[in-house]
Each structure stands twice: as C-alpha cells, then as structure tokens.
Amino acid sequence: MPKILLIEDDPQVAQLLQITLEQKGHTVYWATSGEEAMGYLPKIDLLALDLGLPDVDGVEILKQARTLRPRLPVLVLTAKDDEYTKVYCLEIGADDYMTKPFSVLEFTARVQALLRRSYGSPKMRIGHLELDVEGHRVTLEGRELKLSKTEFALLRTLASAPGRVWSRNELLEAVWGLTFDGTDRVVDVYINMLRKKLGDDPRNPHFIETMVGVGYRLLEPRRNNPTVP
Length: 229
What we know:
11 strands
C-alpha cells in the first residue's frame, strides 16, 4: 500500500486531501511544518508538498527531499501561479506542479499517475523478460534490448501488472502524463515499436496483446509468474 506524505498547513485542505487519498487505499501522513515532515521522508512513496509553510520555505524541503530520496515522486502544491516558480520547482526536482485552487479529482489523478510511473520493484521478471528499473535495462533471454526512455516507461507500466488490460488513456496518463496534449494514437505507435524490439507478432503475440476496442496487456507466461529477485 503506497504511503504518501502530505505537507500542508491548512487543516481544511489537508483533511479533504487526506480523506480522498485514503479512500483510494493509500496510507497518508500529514505534516504541517518542515521540521515535522523530515521524519517521514525515509518511509514514504510520494510527497505532496505545499510551498507556503510557516517555518521554512517549501522549496528547501523539496531540495532536501531530492537529496535524501533522489527517486521519490514529488507533487508541488502552491498558490503561486507564476511561470518562474513552476519552472524553478521542476528544475530542482519536482515531478509535477499544481496551482491552488485545484480539483480534488485532478489532484488524485496526478498522484495516481506519479505512483504508477515510480512505484514498483527495482527488478521485474515476466518469463524470460527482465526489467531492471534502476538500471533502465531490459533483457530478453539474456539479450539486452535497446529501448528509448518512453519505450522503457511503456513496457514497465505494462509489466507492473501482467494480464491487466490498459486503455490508451491510462497508458497516456502513466507514461506521458496528464499534460500531454497529443493524440492517444501515440500509444499505438510505441506499442508497435516495442513489439518489433521484442520480436513479437501482433497476430500471434507472446508478449503484448491487443484487446480490440479496449487497449493492451502484457501476457502472463504460462508457468512463470512475475518475481522479484
């Protein structure tokens, strides 16, 4: 169960977000100050950070979080809507940025998207296919496949739940993010590229199956379940 740290000094906002996230099955820690928040950093899977804190600039918390947990997903929440603040936060390590006021539904969707992109095991094995998440490396029967960053992210998303059918919109959100403004057909393009590198025949797939009118799924091996070395 993913653990989320919410750093927010407004009790009403914090309570609303906490309840919403807990309804999605997440464990939520709530901190109202930077000092209180630091103790939670080692044990969380995502940080939702309000920049306007009473004791310290939220930017400093972001810097410390990125130093202590380089791969920790960070979603910045702030009333500052100027371009400079947004760009600066993204440059120093934020993964996403939301300006207040914002929709609770959008907030939840962004949290889910960040977790899907970042949450999971360092290594995943599905049959003879192995993904080394930290090393950004994929091997098939011991042979390394050269994948682009986007191809890797797409394969990792599919491999996070073998057998599950992902719609194009779900894959867009997980791989390209909510801010992507292109067509969902980009998913088809990258699926075809992945298939070529996997040596997969879409008419008789061993890896990626098309569910017509629904989406795509990574097939589970007949005898081997996904394992974590």
